[in-house]
Specification:
The complex is a heterodimer.
Chain A lengths: L7 H42 L8 H23 L17 H28 L13 H5 L1 H19 L6
Helix pairs in contact in A: 1-2, 1-5, 2-5, 3-5
Chain B lengths: L1 H14 L4 H15 L8 H10 L6 H14 L2 H13 L5 H14 L5 H18 L4 H12 L1 H4 L4 H10 L3 H30 L9 H26 L5 H19 L5 H34 L2 H12 L3 H18 L2 H12 L3 H4 L3 H16 L6 H10 L3 H7 L1 H16 L1 H10 L1
Helix pairs in contact in B: 1-2, 2-14, 3-14, 4-13, 4-14, 5-6, 5-12, 6-7, 6-8, 6-11, 7-8, 7-20, 8-20, 8-21, 10-11, 10-17, 10-19, 11-19, 11-22, 11-23, 12-13, 14-17, 16-19, 17-19, 19-22
Amino acid sequence: MPLWGGSKRAVKQLFYRLCDLVEWLFKGAGFLLFCIMIVAVFYEVVMRYVFNAPTFWSEPLARNAMIWMVLLGLAVGIRHKDNICVDFIDARLPERLKPVAAWLRFGFAFAFAAVLLIYGWKMASVNLRQTITGLGLPVFYIQMVVPIAAFGMLLFLVELIVKGDRGRF
Amino acid sequence: MELLLLFSVLLFTLAIGLPLPFSLGAASLVALLVMDFPIPLTVVPQRFISGIDSFAFMAIPFFLLVGELMNTAGITQRIINLSNALVGHIAGGLAQVNVVSSMFFGGISGSSTADTASIGSILIPAMVKEKYDPEFAVALTATSSCCGPLIPPSIGLILYGVIANVSITKLFLAGYIPGLMLGVGLLLTSYIISKRRGYKTHPRASLGEIARAFSRSVWAAALPFLIIGGLLSGVFTVTEAAGVAVVYTLVVGLFIYRELAPRDLIPIFQRAMVKCGVMMTIAASALIFAWVLTILEVPQQLASAILAVSENKYVILLLLNVFFLFIGTFMEPKASLLILMPVLLPVLPDLGIDPIHFGIIIIFNNCIGLITPPIGLVLNLAAKIGNVPIDKASKASLPFLGTMLVILMIITYLPDLILWLPNML
């Protein structure tokens, strides 16, 4: 008996657990990032109008937290199949063409997510030294969200395929 | 060649139902790959991030969050109670309550689907119970929700403002008058229909009752005025107003009405996060798309093509309206906004059309698209809540649709009506 034999289901279960974990991490991070955005913007309003002492860090902090949150949100959106798409034509396709459309969808989504993963990593890794004005944080840490979120997108797309889910995502 | 590929990939991927951010991104990617001069592909993730990286954009997550929080925080029910005390005694009591609640709601949340879901699930059953025709209740709920995207805050106007690079504060101020016009128009239309059909009227609330309803809902009802006051006086930017609105809603829900529990917050925040993710990345890839269009000099070509048809800006506006109404019937409104704007916006100066005026026209067209089948996102949602077949609901919405078209013509041809409030600033 080879190592995989008979345990295909167990491997699948493990894979789904991994996807659950990634979703949990993304959503947990999203909650924290949302809180950071709210606190930073509100703090700035209070400092500026009540104490007349504007900060220089709150705006870039909130903006960069939003970039992270939005991209992680897109990845989770794929798993929840929450994306906005034009379903008018696809829904009216003849039955035998629907699987074709489904595979084409997967193909295009894979291609774009792969570009985000590979070139996102390339973009981030050349920016290790450059820092964000106002925060003193390397740009790398902000741009890293692109490959991370793209990894999540690819993972969730694979999950849909493995699950045999051919619907719009 | 690049242009042909760009548009055929876009249309093809849209047709097979690929999510919009991927569709716009893939089309731009293909066009970049076949260009004569090499462009490094790192430009794609770079532009993707910089598309989101805008302080003005942050108003979207905040207002989406406020919309998500309102129901749980107990704000929705209180606004409906207050509206009932104010207008419940007019012919078609609950119909008037429905419209006035939507107008209040529009002043707090920025999305029409949130309005329909929360007001509809309370008022449609209540109207049916008082012997209103269910399809009338559904059609009215759907159309009155269209006040939401017009009366600020408005997600659609923020998206437009960021893409068109115009002041969102000005856009917001421009949205109040058409939003109120729509509300009043719907009040009149439903008054006439209710009078004719003899729908139930509530007894007039005494001054004491109005005062009581008001004191119970004062925290909820104050929010729209906080937002408009902050914007008009120039105290807040739109994003700051949105942040303050979030904190205000949290404080009211957690500590004053005490209907919001801290453990509710995590799932609500995460729902809003996913909504932001799917919506704002469309804007980000629309900006990549727009950049590719400029490289290919599409706007210039389109401008000369439009000017070849007519040089009269009113004729062009009429044609654009017809075009948008047509597109709006089968395309999700935010999708059509984000796909068409990069093409059309650069053309506006040549045509002498004010971008703020144009933004309001587009958003109004989008609203009409929300209630016209086959897509009719909001009408579908309301029909589902009221358990009414969609064809009956769309038939019942015809008189309201007529009202909306009349208002659309007014705002198209009387730009000063819209522009005087933002120009005061």
